[in-house]
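Input chain follows. Return structure tokens only.
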Amino acid sequence: MSQHHRHHHDHDDDGAHMDWAQMATLLESQAEVESPLYAEAADWLATLVPAVGVRRILDVGSGPGVLTSLLAEAFPAAEAVAVDGTAPLLERARARAEARGLGDRVSTLHAELPDAIGDLGEADLIWAGNSLHHIGDQRAALAAFAERLRPGGLMVLIEGGLPGRHLPWNQGIGRPGLEARLDVLNSERFGRMRAGLPDAKEEVDDWRALLRAAGLTPAGTRTFLADAPAPVSPVVREQVVAHFERHRAVCDDQLADDDRAALDRLLDPAEPLSVHRRDDLFRLVARTVHTARKG
């Protein structure tokens, strides 16, 4: 299970069929672009728990560890542990921590969840960024995570938000509203991914209720924006291109003919209105952070 700050409720992955190691560079660059958002979220978390009292952090589904290092910087008294099931991503997490002078406080743990939750050790803060929904029985996993929390510790879930937007409603190619129609296909694919997980349980996404059921006390929910307005930087453009390339690949048999043709034009570097060339490209994403405290 890998943290991949890409989908939330725009769900542009099907989880079980993703090659996280192959996507490492894209995952890393996307997390870097969104670092200001997560730094703002970390500052908020520091108002909920005393920063000096946070001695051990688990970054569950850490991926390449961009946020593991960010959390270590936000909580300077803490050891931050990148937890992931993909060894090449953990190698990147270690290299990033060393490069940022955090090698003595950032460690990695290769673990397949949920089976290995009991082996994670105790923590003062558990950060599960877009990773819980890759576990079939989310309720049971949250209860297991709650057992890992020390008294007064904080559980942090990044789940939900709003679908990302990158193009005007009328993008000048095909029917207006293309991204809204892609949202529908993403949602359906996400549902198939959830249904295919081991021990999958259908659950209402009432995160406050699920956190309470785990014996925790909700401590607040906030949504943070990642806003890259037009004209975008080359690295953001690269991410948007990859976003639409993935849509084109995984939605091929479900796309309406005109939407398939529109995506082909949007991805054609020779097309003046393609995502490679257009000046009105942007990236706007909302990430929702849910917190709960252990009494």
